[in-house]
Amino acid sequence: MSQATIDADSRPNPLGVGADHPDYLRADSGLRSWLLTKDHKRIALMFYVGVILFLGLGGVFALVLRTELLTPEQTFIDANTYNQMFTLHGITMVWLFMIPAVPTVFGNFVLPIMLGAKDLAFPRINLASFYIYVLSAIILLGAMLAGGADTGWTFYVPYSTTSPTAVTWMGIGIFVNGISSIMTSVNFIVTTHTMRAKGLSWHRMPLFVWATYATSIIILFATPVLGMSLVLLALDHAFGLSLFNPRYGGDPVLFQHLFWFYSHPAVYIMILPSFGVISEVVCSFSHNQPASYRAIAYSSLGIAFIGFFTWGHHMFVAGLSEFDAGVFGALSMFVAIFSAIKVFTWVATLRGGSISFATPMLYFLWFLFLFVFGGMTGVAVATQSLDVHWHDTYFVVAHFHFIMVGGTLTSFLAAAHYWFPKMFGRLYDERVGLLTSVAVFIGFVFTFLPQFLLGNGGMPRRYFTYPERYQWLNVLSTGGAWLLGAGLLLALGNLLLALKWGKRAGPNPWGSRSFEWITASPPSKHNFEETPDIERSAYDYTLSEEVARERAKAR
Amino acid sequence: MSAQRLVEQFESLEKQDHAARLAMWMFLGSETLLFGALFAAYAYYRGMYPDEFVQALHHNSVALGTTNTVVLITSSFTVALGVHFIRENKARLTAGLFVVSTLFGAVFLVVKGIEYSHHIHENALPSGMYTFIDKPPAGVVLGYTLYWFMTALHGLHVIAGMIMLAVVALLCWKGRYGAHRNVAVENVGLYWHLVDVVWIFLWPLFYLTD
């Protein structure tokens, strides 16, 4: 501790806490200092590279699919390759991009700083979690090269147990991926419980922490069930040890129950951290406290809880009784109530705020539209009578892409732009940011809006040819997909250019009161020299920093 | 001594120990759900094939299963004693008790192995191991499969627990743990109790309900 550090009496450093120490990017140098780092911020950056690579890979698979569907007959790949493509697209996007994306990158980076902690509770487990993620990615990529999979990302038995592709290794890869998820989530939960700064009560925490906390709970209790079902599947595929094979009296529907017991909560794993990001963005750019802090915080927990009781809505046509289906449908609609609470609270937060407009805010608007639109179709598909018509058509594909991609991707991009100055200390080019954002949105809508019509018209999902009459919608969808891909690439390019040539951002370019902006941007290696003393909520735009510090001192 | 073991991200030892305990409980919750999936499968199939399951479970010897239950509960007791004595700073006694628990774990595995060999002789195998001719009726095979899979998974947990117990016993003997530092000991104890609790559920399901 040098004399230059801040004590409570002197004025704080205008560049933020820790500004007189070298930032985390320059604190240590050399490849070893990165690969063996225990710093949550560096681990977050390594995850960042990983998830962006897999977003690219999954995107390539998606473009192959869409291009194949440009014409009614075979366009350029055969049916078998098509099956491989949509399976690999699903596996890559779900387990290697969407589930880890926001929590491991932005959660890892900002969560400890938001809590005023020097690091996560278990830095070594955090690093291990990254390497286990890498290992799972290697296994999955190896399996993709060594035969791929053609079962669809849901691995439904009985076909998946006899498929000639590398299902066993896919199962093992996803199992390993689950271990990484669980490690990260234990870390987040324990950090939230034990490492909050002085005076930072539960109801003063930034909402992103609440969202990540709720997500971690889901990961912790849902992932083992998926792990178990995929281990059983892998053993079945490899050795015929079968719990689901009708030849031995097994019931394939049991696999669906076990699978969706995880994989439906998994969609909340994808979207809850996004809610957190959106809450942060809305409050920061409206310079206003959330219309109801507790509504947003508790509805996250509500979704985490109710999400465990909705898995049956994937199986309305798998032989559930009408009563069961009705119960699952009603429970699924509960999620819409919690989501609506959030949406209305965000919109109400805008009211009376002083709104400054930037790329993250634009992504918030896209998020709002896509999420509400997708969510309302979700209520529709949760209705059994309608689902019988829509099941396994493009309507369902459009619905979950609207929610999962519309929600996760826009919020991931919002977070990437919003925390960019925090992570790298520079500003991206705002005009290019807004333009790429518009491109992403238009591309997205053109890709998936026609698919609602396709599905309602009866085009089944996972088919590689279709009757003539669906062609014009498919052409729209394919065009949209290419535009979406281009928009994403441009957005990435914009951020990459800003890494080197962006303007210096200063500690708090958005004028946010959330705690992660107290530190310098980029933060020093330990974020804080000493644990900060918090005397306000994360969204208090009325209490000045000086008064808050006075109060903290007086305590 | 204790000043050295405070890692830099924590403010106090108290918080650090709290974090370690909480993480262990979280992990145990996760483990519970891992077995929970299999218990759900058991309930599902037992509901479908009540008579066939009874037939399948007749292969299990209640005497051996109960012996194993007693062995595991005893080992849990010695682990609990060990955790009690580490708080009183009697690290060597704890090490001894943990070694005893590890040996009990080994006894459990030996008994399990005897059972497995009986099952193999009696042709009570998991699915996938049968030729077409000697295949028992459908539901019975499911019973065998669940039995083999769940006990084998539990056995893996026993092995993992034994390794941890042995390592902690060695470190206790070397004086690394004591009254000032016992979270690792407690956490391993907790893990062993989980292994025990899972078995206490497996025991009625596979031995007592035919």
UniProtKB/TrEMBL annotation, chain A:
PROSITE patterns: COX1, COX1_CUB. InterPro entries: Cyt_c_oxase-like_su1_dom, Cyt_c_oxase-like_su1_sf, Cyt_C_Oxase_1, Cyt_c_Oxase_su1_BS. It holds the Pfam family COX1. It comes from the Bacteria. Residues 34-535 form the Cytochrome oxidase subunit I profile domain. It is a multi-pass membrane protein. The keyword Lipoprotein does not apply. The chain crosses the membrane at residues 43-65, 85-115, 127-146, 166-190, 210-239, 259-283, 295-313, 325-350, 362-382, 394-420, 432-452, 472-497. Belongs to the heme-copper respiratory oxidase family. This is Cbb3-type cytochrome c oxidase subunit I. It comes from Polyangium mundeleinium.
Automatic annotation (TrEMBL), chain B:
Keywords: Membrane, Transmembrane, Transmembrane helix. The keyword Transmembrane applies. The keyword Transmembrane helix applies. Residues 21-210 form the Heme-copper oxidase subunit III family profile domain. It is a multi-pass membrane protein. It is found in: Cell membrane; Membrane. The chain crosses the membrane at residues 22-45, 65-86, 93-111, 146-173, 185-206. InterPro entries: Cyt_c/ubiquinol_Oxase_su3, Cyt_c_oxidase-like_su3, Cyt_c_oxidase_su3-like_sf, Cyt_c_oxidase_su3_a-hlx. Belongs to the cytochrome c oxidase subunit 3 family. This is Cytochrome c oxidase subunit 3 family protein.
